[in-house]
Amino acid sequence: MADDSGDTALQASRLERLAFPVGKSLTARILAVNLIPLLVLAGSLFFLDSYRRQLLDERFKLARIEAQITAEALAGATRERQEALLSQIGREQRMRMRLYDASGALIADSFELDAPSFTFDDPVAEPFLEDLARWTDTAVNIAVGAPSPPPYAEPADTAADNWPELARVRQQGLSQIELRRAPDGTPVINAAAPVGVNGASLLTTRNASDITQAVRNARSSLMTIILLALAVSIVLSLYLANTIIQPLRRLVISTQRVRLGRDREVEVPRMDERADEIGLLARAVSDMTATLRHRIDAVETFAADVAHEIKNPLASLRSATESLPRVKEPKLHAQLVEVAAHDVRRIDRLVTEISEASRIDAELSRATFEPVELGQLFANVVARKMERSENRGCVITIDMETSRDLVMGVPLRLERIAENLIDNAVSFSPEGGRITVTISRSDKRVAATVCDEGPGIPEGEREKVFRRFHSHRPEGEEYGNHSGLGLAIGRTIAEAHDGSLSVADPSGSLGGACLVLELPAA
């Protein structure tokens, strides 16, 4: 129990390593990719400063023109008419208008002639949202490096020279514009213009709070769009990440559990409902796991069969060698020696066959296929057996039903199939019997059918003959001359060539077994 709990803890600790760091997770990357355009869009908030400057430039031109037109209207007018114009224009245009004489003394003020047309907002008395808006204005101005105009303040002395723009008008005789900042941060535009030719001058003051409000409205609209797009982008990114990453994590955890040796407890999700690449990957991993399990089962079965097959001759060999010292009769002694030699040969044959069976897959996976004439290959095998008198007097004929018998494969391995099929037919045929090899072609497949006059293979036994170590001895044949691997090796080689090896119904007058090798035509 302690070992089991220790193994469980170890496996749990290994599974914990599957945690996905945010810096490497696809979720973070998907979010980053989708948020980058939004961040670029958010950066456009800073370009609202150019929009503000454009509005100010237009308002500067308007203020200059208003001041010049008003100055022309005031020139030559009587004092009463001047005061009436200042009061009317100031009230209608929401401006403060001040008229100075040639000495620079203030002679008329629209705010004194009539009620003030505007007042500066007190930032202390304004609600929190206005404070937040001003803080945002300040932060954006600092971020974009916008110059901060000087604060607007009424001079203690009302003389014209206390206003720099009026001082320049009096010196240069040209209209001037000056930008200042109200207590609430909104722009204050002063425009000064000469009045007539006697040295009088006009100063107009406008609180252009609508410019600040226009910029704030544009920024608010843009921020609303950005936040909405951000919310939609995050939701879609998380949805996309969930549909991609969560299935991948399930696959990773499943394959990790398989790697840790817990494959029997793991069902790798196939995700049959998904027709996309994730579904294809899931089904591929599931099929790969099933194939892996099949191979593990095959290896375990093969190892058990090997142990069983070698154990029998080893037991016989051990019994013979242990009995030899105690046997004094020469004839019985010679029989024991023959039994021991027979068992050694049997073990050698088994080891050779097992070694070849275990390395066929690896060799064929690296082999280079080349064109092979299947009929000629069988003819060469039959000729060699006849030269070595290994046919037990059987007559082997090759019937070529097609001249297009070219296949792609490894000649030595295909020869091994041919040798196994001929050996099997010779073993089960009566001495001097007939064996036929028929080469035919159907569609894109070339087939070699080997039939004999032996007892045949019952229909219920046709798949068993291809199992490893399945050995059914022909009547009268000495035990141990067949390893039971020949047909199993032959089928493995055929399948590695995208072909097949199977048992067919008896044909013709032979009535024995018929084994068919099918390979793709070249």
Automatic annotation (TrEMBL):
Compartments it resides in: Membrane
UniProt domain Histidine kinase: residue ranges: 305-522
Stored CDD domains: HAMP, HisKA
Catalysis: reaction(s): ATP + protein L-histidine = ADP + protein N-phospho-L-histidine
Presence of the UniProt keyword Secreted in the record: no
Pfam families in the record: HAMP, HATPase_c, HisKA, Sensor_TM1, Stimulus_sens_1
SMART domains reported in the protein's UniProt record: HAMP, HATPase_c, HisKA
Protein name per the record: histidine kinase
